[in-house]
Each structure stands twice: as C-alpha cells, then as structure tokens.
Q: What sequence folds into this?
C-alpha cells in the first residue's frame, strides 16, 4: 500500500523520518513522488524573502491606518441600539404608535365613515386657563378620548429596559402626555387627527 | 499588570489605568483597552503586527503598492471587528485570517500583477555578485509566478505554512477548515508547484 497523503506531508516536513516509512524502501513510485515534493518545497523556500520596504514605510503604514480609522463613523452608538434592552421597548413603542394610528374605534361614536368622506372626529378641548400654565398640569387629559387612550396604553408599557439603557425614565410615555402643556397637547392631537383622517387608516 | 485586566472581565477601562502605559500589556489586554476606547492601544497592535501582515499581503499580490493597500484594509477591518475577537486564537492568527480573506477577495477581482524584477529596488541581496543576484531574482520571480497560479486554498496554505511558519492547526483556524484539509491542500500545492515549475525548477 502506497504512502498516505498525511505520510507524504509528514515526510516532506521532516516530522517523520524515511526510516519510519518502510514502504519507501520497496516502492519506487512513492520515492519518486516524495523527491518531487521535496524539490518543490526547496524551490518554494527560495522565494522566502519579501523585499524590504523603505524604513520610513512602516510609520507611513501606521499613519495611513490611523487616518482611515479616524475617518470611520463611530459604529458603537449604532450597535447599542441592537441590544435587547433597547430594542424591546422601542418595538413596544412602535406597536403603540401603530395601534394609535390604525385603531378603528377612534373614528368617533358614529362608527365607520361613509366612503369618500372624512371621519368626524371629536375636537380637542383646551382649557384656556392651561394655556398660560407653564407646567401644563391644568390640562384635562382625561376629557379628551384620544389623549386618554395614549395615556392609558402607555401606562402599562414596559419601559424598564429603555430606562436601563438611559433612553427614558419609567412611565415617561405616560408622563409625556400628562405633563404636556397645552401647545404640545394641541400639536399631538393634530398629528393624531391627521393620521386618523388618512383614507387608509 | 493590574489583575483587573483580564480577558474574562470585559467592561469599562478602569479610570485609574486610563493613562497607564500600554507597552507592557499583552495582546488580550490591548484588545480590551482598545474596546474601552483607547485608540492608542490599536496603534500598538498595528505596530506589532504590521510587518507580518504586510509580508503576508505581499506574498499574495507580489507588489509593494497593492500589499500596502491590502495591509491597511486588514487593519481597518480588524478594528471594525475587534469586538468579535474572542481570544480563541492568537491575535496574529486572527489577523492572518482577515488578511487571507482580504487578499483572496482582492485576487478574485483581478489577476494579481507580479512586480517586474527591475522594480525590486528594495531587495536586500548585498554580498552577492551581479550574476548571482540576477539568477536568484529570476528564480524567485518564477516561483512567485507559479505560486500565484495555485488554487486559492492551496496558495493560502502554502504561504502560511512555508513563509509564516504557522502550524497546521493555526492554518486551519485561519482558513476556517480542518487540519486534514490543510494537509491535503499543502500536499496538492507542492505537487502543482512542481508541475508549474517543471523539471528545471524543481
């Protein structure tokens, strides 16, 4: 039986002596093949030298690498958004926005609107007294069904992960609604109405 | 070195060591320091491995300009992926793995040019006479051209085994293959090299 591939490699690399391979003494073909492999290895060894660059090249190489790295955008902040602690609460928030935008019950007490007509939406009632209140505490969120729904939905949302990630405090979504001043509430309400008035909503 | 600088305890770089000298740190601690935001730690990694990485690239493309560009690519990719380095292999093996991928990808895009013998002004052949220098340069060019014609895995295996003295296992790690595959590739690389060089070359 001829030498195996492993035996040839070991013999060429010198990790096995020819004496440990008795087959070689009896097989001219294997001796010839081994001699060819050794000759090829000797030839390859002649190419061992890599031309030495200028002594200044190495610092130039380091500088070039440094410049390219400095030009790289900092990816660390982006990677942090892929962590579950951030991704889960953000996904919950996205679902909340979709629910707010697509919920059919928000189209008013009259139910579905006729095709081609815009739904009749309740108008937000802004307490005139709250317009001048910098804290916005005087705003009656509960009186407005749209804002109340946002507040209710966000109250039970798990934002602990977002809090841990430094993105938001617990219950921040609820407080964002209940602590809005009148101008902010009006802007939010207009956004919600615009979304609900869209034909596909 | 502070005992807190261990591979198994990643985290913020200790404030007390924010200005510590990096010279005495091993490669794992350097990687940790780099991940903690110390760019100078990566500069030191580049300084320690730039010659080996450049030589690896040169053996694939056989010209200085491309080897320089590829070596830069290797380090930039290493910087981007430093977080993926788990320390299962040495940093050198990891860099070689990146280097082999970068070089093979480049060579897949275009046939590698070999540097004309006349352009090899940096070859240190001092002590050899004119005819000897020319003969050696011709032999080297012929061998280099033959290696460039080897299939990708065979070429990478031959280069890493012959010129970078990597073990079969290290090459297997670098190429993402097995020791058996490495030995087979080395065997076939030598056989094909012998055929390409012909009887006079071998």
A:
């Amino acid at each position: 039986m001829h030498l195996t591939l492993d035996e040839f490699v070991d013999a060429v690399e010198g990790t096995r002596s020819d004496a440990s391979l008795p087959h070689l003494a009896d097989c001219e073909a294997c001796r010839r093949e081994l001699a060819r492999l050794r000759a090829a290895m000797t030839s390859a060894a002649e190419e061992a030298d890599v031309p030495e660059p200028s002594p200044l090249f190495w610092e130039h190489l380091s500088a070039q690498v440094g410049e390219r790295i400095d030009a790289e955008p900092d990816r660390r902040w982006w990677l942090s958004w892929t962590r579950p602690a951030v991704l889960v609460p953000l996904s919950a928030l996205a679902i909340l926005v979709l629910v707010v935008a697509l919920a059919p019950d928000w189209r008013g007490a009259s139910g579905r609107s006729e095709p081609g007509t815009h739904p009749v939406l309740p108008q937000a009632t802004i307490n005139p007294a709250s317009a001048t209140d910098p804290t916005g505490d005087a705003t009656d969120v509960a009186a407005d069904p749209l804002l109340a729904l946002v507040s209710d939905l966000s109250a039970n949302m798990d934002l602990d992960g977002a809090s841990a990630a430094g993105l938001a405090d617990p219950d921040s979504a609820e407080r964002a609604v209940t602590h809005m001043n009148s101008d902010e509430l009006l802007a939010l309400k207009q956004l919600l109405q615009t979304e609900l008035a869209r034909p596909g909503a | 070195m502070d005992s807190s600088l261990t591979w198994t305890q990643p985290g913020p770089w200790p404030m007390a060591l924010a200005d510590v000298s990096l010279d005495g740190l091993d490669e794992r601690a350097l990687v940790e320091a780099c991940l903690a935001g110390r760019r100078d730690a990566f500069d030191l990694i580049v300084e320690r491995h730039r010659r080996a990485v450049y030589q690896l690239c040169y053996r694939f493309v056989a010209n200085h300009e491309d080897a320089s560009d590829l070596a830069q690519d290797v380090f930039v990719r290493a910087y981007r992926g430093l977080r993926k380095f788990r320390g299962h292999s040495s940093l050198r093996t990891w860099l070689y793995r990146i280097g082999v991928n970068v070089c093979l990808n480049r060579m897949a895009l275009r046939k590698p040019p070999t540097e004309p013998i006349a352009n090899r002004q940096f070859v240190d052949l001092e002590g050899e006479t004119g005819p000897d220098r020319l003969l050696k340069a011709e032999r080297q060019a012929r061998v280099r051209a033959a290696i460039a014609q080897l299939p990708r895995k065979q070429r990478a295996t031959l280069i890493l085994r012959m010129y970078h003295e990597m073990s079969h296992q290290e090459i297997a790690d670098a190429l993402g293959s097995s020791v058996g595959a490495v030995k087979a590739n080395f065997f076939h690389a030598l056989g094909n090299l012998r055929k390409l060089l012909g009887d006079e070359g071998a």
Observations:
- Chain A has ten helices and no strands.
